Model the fold of this input.
Amino acid sequence: MRGRERIRRCTQQRETTLIAKTEFKILSHHSAMATTQLRLKLLIDNKAQKVLFAEVGKDFVDFLFNLLSLPVGTVVRLHKSHSMGGCLVNLYESVEKLSNTYMQPNQTKDCLLNPIAATSVSHVPLLLPTDVSTPRKYYQCGNCSYNRVTDNPSTNCPNCNRKMSSELTYVDPNSTTANASSSTGEGGYVKGVVTYMVMDDLVVTPMSTISSVTLLNKFNVKDLSSLEEMDVDFGMEEGLELLRASFQSTTVLTHIFLGKKGN
Done:
């Protein structure tokens, strides 16, 4: 009896420890998500009430470039409650309202309403809801050697009927220097050796003194005293607004930070 009681107590302690570790990981993840913010330096023309450009690091550029990997369905879902414009919202809502009876047996509405990008890049700032950045995972049967894969680990293997739950590792064919970049731990899309300049219309270029002077001439800035540098925080709220504004405006940074609607 004492032996059984000792085993029972040890089991309870292990379960309690496991639950505590799991809760800690979840809380740590949400805490990291909540505090994810970037710092941008804006150059503002107060006379024209316009953001000329933002001086940013690689993290912000990685975030911008990562927007290009988002499926259209994800973009619509994030903004369908706002005035997105166009008719993609109607298409999205049509899928929402369509009965599953009309869907092919091997298809679900979720793959259209909540699509997942086929690939992802590590170390991109979490400035959008977590499900947007979740990479698609692929699985195979651990019992068979057939070349069959699925994105649902509960799928039964057509050959042996066991669950296809062995996760595969995706290797990007474009990453010819994958091992070299992973050893640096930098990740993302661009290198962090320089500062970048992001224009009001989201044109991205490496920062240089010459490019700054050229830009001032382009905007015909005569009175340098009207220019002001401003440090701003860029978090999840601004990230969602940037994504929405990029479909409707050519003055995205001005819209976000000065509250003026662009063209």
Remarks:
- The radius of gyration is 24 Å.
